[in-house]
Every structure is written in C-alpha cells, then in structure tokens.
Amino acid sequence: MISPLHHPHSAFYDDDGNIIVPRDDQADATPSESQAMRDCSASQSMNAGSEEIIEWDTLAAEQNDPPVPAHEKPVESQLATLRVLTRKTLREGMRQYRESIAATEPFLRELEDEATTGLKRLWLFLTQPVVIPMRKRTKTYNRGTLFLIDVVRFGGTFAGIFLVLFVALNFQSFWDIASARLSLLLSSPSLDLSNAPGTSDLAATLRESRSRLRSAGDLKSLLPDVGPPDTLLMIPKLHLTAPIVNTPTDALLRQDWPGVEKEIQSALEQGVVHYPGTAKFGQMGNPLITGHSSFFLWSPGKFKSIFARLSELNPGDEYWVYANGDKHRYVVRSKREVSPSDVSVLDQPTDERIATLMTCTPVGTTLRRLIVVAQEVDPLSGIALNVGDHSQKQQTVKVKLDSLPI
Asked: What's the rounded Cα separation, in Å, for the pair 298 and 353?
C-alpha cells in the first residue's frame, strides 16, 4: 500500500526526449515550480545545443575555406607590411652604422694625437737654427729655409735640363716658328713712291701686286685651277707645300689598328697623309689630312715639322688641294683642340663638303690634337659648294695651230 504522504517522483522529459531527474532539494517543489524548472532546463539544453552547432559550423567553414593568396590581399595591407620591413631595415642599418662609428672613435682619436705630435716635432725640426760659416761672417738659417733653397735649386736645375733637351729634340719645329716670326719683324716697310715724278702708275701697280701677294701668301696664288698630276697640299699663309700620301686600306679593312698606325707613321716620312677611310677630295664627306708638328731628329724624312705652324691658321684663311689635276679650294671655318681619343673628327657627314687638317699640339708633345675644319668653296667665285655642286671652270684661250710642232 502506497503511503499517501509519499510524493510521486518529479522526473520529466524535455522537448528532445531526454529524462530530467531533479536534485533532492528540488523534489519537494510545487507543481508550478517544477514546471518552471523544466522550462529552464529545456532552455539551457537548447542554448547549449545551439552554441555547439554554431562552433562546429564555424570550424567546418574555416577548414573548408582556402587560404587567401598574397597577390589577392588588399594593397593597403601589402604597403603596410612593406613600410614595416623598410623601417626595420633602416633601424638595423643605423644601429650597425652607429656601432661602427663608435668602434672607430678610439682609433681616430689615437691617429689624431699621433698626427698632432708628429706635426709638432716636424715644426720644431724645421725651425731649428743652423749656423753656416761664411768668409767674413756667419749666417744663421733654420732648417726649413735651407730645405726650400735646396728645392728651388734642384727644381731650377731639373727644369733647365728638361727645357734644353726639349728644345734640342724639337729644334726644327721651333726654328720654323721662330723664323716665321722674325721674318715678319724684319720685313721691309711698304714702298712709298708717290712723291717721285712720273712713277705714280708704277707705284700703283707695285702696290696692287704686293697686296695680291700678301693676301695669297706667295706667287702660287696665281696658279690656274688645273694643277700638277700629283696630289699636293698648299697653304699660302704658311708658305707650305707638301705632297699628300695615300696609304693602303688592307689593314683598315682587317680592322688591324696597329697596322693602320704603322702605315700612317711610315707614310708621314714622305709628306702629309690622307687618312684612310675618309672621303675623297671634291666629294661628299670629310677628307682628313694629318701631319707631324714635331718628331725625333734622328727619324728619316724631311716632313717632321710640316704642321708646326698650323695653329696660325684662323677662320677665313684658305688652303688648296690639287688632286687628280683638279684644284679644290677650302676656307677655314673653325679651329679647336680635342683629346687623342676623340674619334668624332673622322665623322663623314652626308650633307656637306668639308675637309680637316690635324696635328699634335702643343708642339713637341702628343697631349692634344689640333683640328682645323674648312668648307670647300668654288675656286673662282668662293661660294660654298654643296653636295652635288660642280665648280666653275676657268676660261682658257684656245689657240689654233697651223701645223704640228716639231
């Protein structure tokens, strides 16, 4: 028989079918309290289940999502990373630099102290007095003054010996320059026959002839356009006439530059050289003529100082080239000095007709190259010739012979 005082068991089912057994302190609860407890337990069970489901869903999503590639990351994120790396690198560099400076400071201080001590000892040594006995009295100098006197003596002696040897080795070139200057100083004054009776016409003729010779340089200015069959260079202002030598082009085609230099040096013994590979005279381009300004006395050839006075040419002066029986007239338009490695002087323009004279400068050295560029002009009119132009021919008198000469 069941006691009426005994309370029935208060276990219950939740919404998911789970059996919920209350604690002993909760067994005596009223029906309304039991229902509230059941509702609270059900709510807690539902919340726990939902949290567990959310955690598993989040973990599964993280495991299924692929990693984001670096190139798809936002630009701002990449720039921020780059800035951080840059700052770290700069800080590390500055730290190492400061440590290096700090490590060398003791050595620099020691070096400064040693230099200061050495300079003080040197100053004391140079200022130390030295007594030099003379015939009548003694003189007192310090060691620094005596050192300077010895330096001046030695330097003067060395400079004098060098100057004598330099002039001796280049005697021919300096003699040509000096004789040209002396000839201008010792030249006779201009003729003045205006007061002589009956000589006005003669004086006018002489003055006209003299002016023509001065402007041209010598009697060669009166030569016709047709010249000798040899290739010649004539510079009236310098009273210079020299054969132009053409060198073989075999070494140039092989690009054998030592061979080209050897052939040019050999040809310079016979005159001035038409540089291989440059244009022909009277054609489009830039024919270049090179010659010695000075050379060794014992070297063969009589053209070792042919261009010693080339520096006297100025813009407006002219020179002529006779090639293949034709006269080519050139007027100087520029003069400059370049380094020996400047090969732009060999450039061949395609839109003008120019020519270049080249020699070593200063005289007796090979430090620089003197470049004189001239424009080809018409031999008669003096008008600049362009590419394709033909020069005017001088009118010659035709003589009809009655019979063949015997």
From this structure: 38
Q: Please report which residue ranges of 65-170 form alpha helices under DSSP H.
A: 75-126, 143-169
The domain made up of 221-377 has a fold known as Sortase; Chain: A; (2.40.260)
Instruction: Give the whole-angstrom CA distance, residue 332 versus residue 315.
Output: 5
CATH 2.40.260.10 in the chain is located at 221-377
Q: Which two tokens stand for residue 58?
A: 């989040």
The single residue listed with the structure tokens 């470049």 is 371
Number of DSSP helices (H) and strands (E) in the chain, helices first: 7, 12
pTM of the model: 0.57
Is 348:279 a contact under the CB 8 Å cutoff?
yes
CB of 227 within 8 A of CB of 322?
Answer: yes
376 close to 328: Cβ distance less than 8 angstroms: yes
C-alpha span between 303 and 328 (Å, rounded): 22
Which pLDDT tens digit goes with each residue over 221-256? Answer: 555 555 667 889 999 999 899 999 999 888 888 888
How far is residue 87 from each of residues 74, 84, 95, 124, 322, measured CA to CA in Å? 20, 5, 12, 54, 76
List 375's β-bridge partners, or say none. Answer: 331, 354
| Cis status, amide bond into 362, omega within 30 of 0 | yes
Give 273-303 pLDDT, tens digit per residue: 999 999 999 899 999 999 999 887 788 888 8
